[in-house]
């Protein structure tokens, strides 16, 4: 027991130190885990050996990775990618395998061994590529979508290969064809079963779990769902990772998607690190040192071979040359399932010992070099003089439909959050709310409101809400301890964003300011000021005096509203502000009176109000012509005196 504890402690300590060191010098964490594995393995310092249990735990990292990847998709999105997955993906595997067979056969291998090696080279590393795409935020770029489409088909192609290798060794073609057909039937059945469970059972389960509002239960349920889906596909002889992906995809359309991804991330990242450690432990360092010249040549050939095939196939499918080449660089390496297939081929005498060691070394080193090449992709493309061009179908739009910036993030969509949103909407100020009450989220989303489910203190969820690009974050809860936790999370994600916080009273005002809150609104103070205003008014005190008293009381409370609460001699109720013109943005709902009418028909000039600009579909038109027809969701910029603009707004909305 003490030996196991010492081994695990040494492994974790080495991983922590190396990840820190590699990050400090700008290298990816994947390399640190691979080096940790080399040091811990039998060809390094050798304090650990790979056991079945360790392999299984490491495989869970891939399961959670594919589950989180599935959350990024849904059935409609996957159907939109069918040309990539089943078109480009199948072409890539087929062409790479066929061309690779002839290339390996030229090296004096028999056709059987050539097929095995070529099929290994056709696969790429889902673990490496997806992790890098997620960390760099490029998953929704066109090259990221191309890579994901091909990786999904490769993961599906692993299943028949796992079945085919043992049967090829028997050299009975009829048995092979029958077994593959049976495997495909099983795969179709388990996919339909998981789809039915995800469609009708999982949403109800998570609705019940979310209604309890216990973070531990939500995390536990997420882990159980991912593992159960993986176990189900494993029982049918398929990949555990494929089941986890399908389960994640079924939940990708639910309001829990962002929270699920946030909860699964810590387990995924730690177990993925362990997976790369086990990969590093398989590297035969003396063999690599002895054959380093041949391995370098093989790495160069593999890079050139796969990049050219993937780039050419992608361009034949109508992709830009820049995206096609970048996708090739993403997918040039051998994949993690290749190690499983190498072991299987070696077990059934399809490969000799030297070929097995060479392929393992080639796979490990190709995965280690990949992060560096991906990081250098822009430089490589520039040196090759490859520039982007126009593309007729940009699938990235399907997966990145709304990139929020300069918006308001409302943390909590209860009565206070809804009131804030109701005032922001007519001013055409974009906003996004985060709420953990599932019933409230479902009702809001049904009504078309931009509301995400999850806990506001989750850094991953705040990143999904683009808090770092927001103009303001509003904390609507009044509990100090909860606000403290949320503020810490906000500051980790966006150190410079402005924060407006609500509090029960002013007892924690200074503490909130020290935490980095820009402005604090104590509800007890506002309630008392409103109450005393009514008391004074109903007692006969003139409204001017009431405004002066209340403004003076507020003056030192709100830094950003000093100009409004000036308490000067001007009567706020006087109409002399009407001498000034101002601009006001108005978003037209579908029920607005002005929809489907021209600007000329509305005759706003009679009300002495002018439409100075119009924003439609993300484009702004300055000085729109009188014959332009207004559409629903148009944002009009009205110019005029305040009271006239107010009347014009009512006219445009209600007639």
Helix content: 55-70%
> Could you say which overall geometry the principal axes of the C-alpha atoms support?
elongated
Write the CATH fold name of the largest domain. Answer: Na+/H+ antiporter like fold
Q: What's the arrangement of strands in the largest beta sheet? A: 3-2-1-4-5-6
Number of domains: 3
Count of alpha and pi helical runs: 28
What is the averaged pLDDT score?
Answer: 80
CATH architecture of the largest domain: Up-down Bundle
The whole-angstrom Rg is 31 Å
User: What summary fits the major beta sheet?
Assistant: 6 strands, parallel
- The total beta strand count reads 10
CATH top-level class of the largest domain: Mainly Alpha
> What is the terminal separation in angstroms?
80 Å
Q: Which segments are poorly predicted (pLDDT under 50) over 5 or more consecutive residues?
A: 388-402, 561-579
Main structural class: alpha/beta
Transmembrane segments: 6-22, 29-50, 56-75, 84-105, 111-133, 145-169, 175-197, 217-250, 270-289, 296-318, 324-344, 356-374
GO molecular function: antiporter activity; monoatomic cation transmembrane transporter activity
InterPro entries: Cation/H_exchanger_TM (IPR006153), Na+/solute_symporter_sf (IPR038770), NAD(P)-bd_dom_sf (IPR036291), RCK_C (IPR006037), RCK_C_sf (IPR036721), RCK_N (IPR003148)
Subcellular location: Membrane
């Amino acid at each position: 027991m003490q030996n196991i504890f010492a081994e695990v402690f040494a492994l974790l300590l080495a991983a922590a130190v190396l990840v820190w060191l590699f990050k400090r010098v700008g290298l990816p964490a994947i390399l640190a885990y691979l080096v940790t594995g080399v040091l811990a393995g039998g060809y390094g310092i050798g304090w650990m050996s790979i056991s079945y249990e360790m392999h299984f735990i490491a495989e869970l990292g891939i399961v959670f990775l594919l589950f989180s990847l599935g959350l990024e998709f849904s059935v409609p999105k996957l159907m939109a990618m069918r040309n990539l997955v089943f078109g480009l993906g199948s072409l890539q595997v087929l062409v790479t395998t066929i061309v690779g067979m002839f290339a390996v056969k030229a090296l004096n291998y028999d056709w059987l061994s050539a097929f095995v090696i070529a099929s290994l080279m056709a696969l790429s590393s889902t673990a490496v590529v997806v992790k890098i795409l997620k960390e760099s935020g490029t998953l929704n770029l066109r090259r990221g979508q191309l890579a994901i489409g091909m990786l999904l088909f490769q993961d599906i192609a692993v299943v028949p290969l796992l079945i085919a290798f043992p049967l090829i060794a028997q050299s009975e073609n009829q048995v092979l064809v029958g077994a593959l057909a049976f495997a495909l039937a099983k795969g179709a059945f388990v996919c339909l079963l998981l789809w039915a469970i995800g469609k009708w059972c999982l949403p109800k389960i998570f609705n019940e779990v979310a209604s309890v509002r216990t973070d531990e239960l939500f995390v536990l349920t997420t882990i159980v769902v991912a593992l159960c889906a993986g176990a189900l596909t494993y029982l049918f002889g398929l990949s555990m990772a494929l089941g986890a992906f399908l389960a994640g995809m079924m939940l990708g359309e639910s309001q829990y998607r962002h929270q699920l991804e946030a909860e699964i991330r810590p387990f995924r990242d730690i177990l993925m690190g362990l997976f790369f450690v086990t990969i590093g432990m398989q590297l035969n360092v003396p063999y690599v040192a002895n054959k380093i010249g041949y391995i370098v040549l093989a790495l160069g050939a593999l890079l050139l071979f796969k990049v050219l095939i993937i780039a050419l196939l992608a361009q034949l499918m109508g992709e830009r040359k820049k995206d096609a080449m970048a996708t090739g660089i993403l997918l040039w390496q051998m994949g993690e399932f290749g190690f499983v297939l190498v072991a299987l081929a070696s077990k059934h005498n399809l490969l000799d010992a030297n070929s097995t060691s060479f392929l393992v070394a080639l796979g490990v080193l190709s995965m280690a070099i990949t992060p560096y090449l991906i990081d250098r992709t822009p430089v490589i493309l520039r040196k090759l003089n490859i520039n982007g061009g126009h593309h007729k179908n940009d699938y990235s739009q399907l997966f990145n439909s709304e990139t929020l910036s300069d918006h308001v993030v409302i943390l909590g969509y209860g009565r206070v959050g809804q009131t804030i949103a109701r005032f922001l909407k007519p001013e055409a100020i974009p906003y996004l709310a985060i709420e953990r009450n599932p019933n409230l989220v479902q009702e809001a989303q049904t009504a078309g409101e931009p509301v995400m489910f999850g806990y506001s203190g989750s850094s991953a969820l705040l990143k999904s809400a683009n808090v770092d690009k927001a103009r303001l974050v509003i904390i609507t809860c009044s509990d100090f301890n909860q606000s403290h936790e949320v503020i810490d999370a906000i500051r980790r994600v966006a150190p410079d964003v402005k924060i407006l916080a609500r509090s029960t009273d002013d007892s924690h005002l200074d503490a909130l300011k020290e935490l980095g809150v820009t402005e604090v609104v104590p509800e007890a103070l506002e309630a008392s000021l409103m109450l005393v205003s009514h008391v004074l008014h109903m007692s006969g005190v003139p409204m001017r005096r009431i405004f002066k008293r209340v403004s003076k009381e507020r003056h030192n409370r709100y830094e950003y509203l000093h100009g409004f609460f000036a308490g000067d001699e001007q009567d706020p109720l006087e109409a002399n502000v009407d001498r000034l013109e101002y601009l006001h943005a108005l978003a037209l709902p579908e029920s607005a009176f002005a929809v489907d009418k021209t600007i000329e028909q509305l005759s706003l000039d009679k009300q002495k109000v002018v439409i100075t600009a119009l924003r439609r579909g993300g484009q702004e038109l300055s000085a729109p012509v009188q014959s332009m027809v207004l559409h629903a969701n148009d944002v009009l910029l009205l110019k005029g005196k305040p009271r006239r603009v107010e009347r014009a707004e009512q006219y445009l909305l209600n007639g």
